[in-house]
Design brief:
alpha/beta; TIM Barrel; Arc Repressor Mutant, subunit A; 2 domains; nine-stranded mixed β-sheet; 21% strand; globular; binds iron/sulfur cluster
């Protein structure tokens, strides 16, 4: 894909039930808004696709779309189809574009999967989180593992050949053995991609309250590190490439959409609470679905890339753009940071900007330079936040 090609992130802010650890922009009990929301999202796509940008003559090329949530699989297939039609009408959608939808096991059936596949969705990302019943209950997930097995089988039957599974480690009450059981259970389903996240207990969530009420022991950081190390070994043995700190893929199946983020590329964030990065600007769309719909009905857009529903925007300074580039690209364990591309983009050698920081991190064994690329070491994978903090 060429450098000017965009990614689109489309946020669907609806869930049936709120999981105990969730701090995403999502709402329960708003199912009656979904149809109006799909229309508003279509309007936002049309609006941003039509905003003039100097130098643009043809519609802007798009090579990935990601429906994130929330639970995008709660949207009717006809609503997904409408949204994708709007993208095709107002952008130049590449015929081989990766189009991902996040889905919860238990929210999809054969007819639904066939309909969204026909609409153009070609990759699914299932929020599995664990194969262990007690852990799913603790996380307050609505599904059991049998629903995961069924959803994966139905997806294959509907023609999906690119499936991701999300798992969570560092869960209170989890043991190394139960984590190993979850990893083995999802590997048996033969996904093309795995995303493994360490649980973070965010303020304002029920789980945060329970922790402060002493209802469970805090997560054990050493156990979480052991779980991550186990996953690194087990997934390598199973033929997966560890291409990003938290992501593994079969060869050729890395998530193209997320690669846009990690290469610090441009993406438009559309839908309530979505974040975007384009034309040197980071921005966020208003969070509340009702306000979002109202704004899309009545307001005028700003300048590209800002729709009428954007609530916050920030023009990146040069030091911010440099720092973002380093932090996002170092997440890519094989690619790393391309030092020549950095110098070309910013007109300044990387060493001149960050030489002393890098020398310190190399001394601690957290970074290493090979040729003209800088990468995290294996030790650095475990301490990546410490590394990134020093580039801020
Ligand atoms: S399904 Fe996902 S977005 Fe919805 S409440 Fe649970 S964690 Fe949050």
């Amino acid at each position: 894909m060429n450098r000017s090609s965009l990614s689109l992130y489309l946020h669907i802010p609806f869930c049936r039930h709120r999981c105990a650890y969730c701090d995403f922009n999502t709402y329960t009990g708003l199912g009656d808004l979904q149809q109006a929301y799909a229309l508003a999202l279509g309007q936002e796509i049309a609006q941003v696709g039509g905003l003039p940008r100097p130098g643009d003559i043809l519609p802007r090329p798009v090579h990935t779309i990601f429906f994130g949530g929330g639970t995008p699989s709660l949207m009717a297939a006809a609503e997904i189809d409408h949204i994708l039609q709007q993208v095709r009408q107002h952008f130049d959608l590449h015929p081989a574009a990766e189009i991902t939808m996040e889905a919860n096991p238990g929210t999809v059936d054969a007819a639904y999967l066939a309909a969204i596949r026909a609409a153009g969705v070609n990759r699914l990302s299932f929020g599995v989180q664990s194969a262990v019943a007690e852990e799913l209950r603790f996380l307050e997930r609505e599904h059991d593992f049998a629903a995961v097995v069924e959803a994966m089988a139905l997806s294959r039957a509907a023609g999906f050949d690119n499936l991701n599974v999300d798992l969570i480690y560092g869960v209170p009450g989890q043991t190394l053995a139960s984590w190993q059981a979850s990893v083995a259970a999802v590997l048996a389903l033969q996904p093309e991609h795995l995303s493994l996240y360490c649980l973070t207990i965010e303020p304002g969530t029920p789980m945060h309250r329970w922790l402060h009420q002493g209802l469970f022991e805090p997560p054990d950081a050493d156990l979480a590190a052991d779980e991550y190390a186990y996953a690194c070994t087990a997934l390598a043995a199973a033929g997966f490439e560890h291409y990003e700190i938290s992501n593994w893929a079969r060869p050729g199946r890395a998530c193209e959409h997320n690669l846009t983020y990690w290469r610090n590329g441009e993406y438009l964030g559309l839908g309530a609470g979505a974040h975007g990065h384009a034309a040197g600007c980071r921005y966020a769309v208003v969070k509340q679905p009702r306000v979002y719909i109202r704004r899309m009905r009545s307001s005028r857009p700003g300048a590209y890339p800002l729709s009428a529903a954007v609530a916050e925007q920030h023009q990146l300074s040069r030091p911010e753009a440099m720092s973002d580039t380093v932090i996002t690209q170092l997440r890519l364990l094989q690619e790393g940071l391309d030092l020549d591309a950095f110098a070309e983009q910013f007109g300044e050698p990387f060493q001149a900007a960050y030489g002393s920081v890098v020398a310190q991190l190399e001394g601690w064994g957290l970074l290493q330079q090979t040729g003209r690329h800088l990468r995290l070491t294996e030790r650095g994978w475990f301490l990546s936040n410490q590394v990134f903090y020093r580039f801020m």
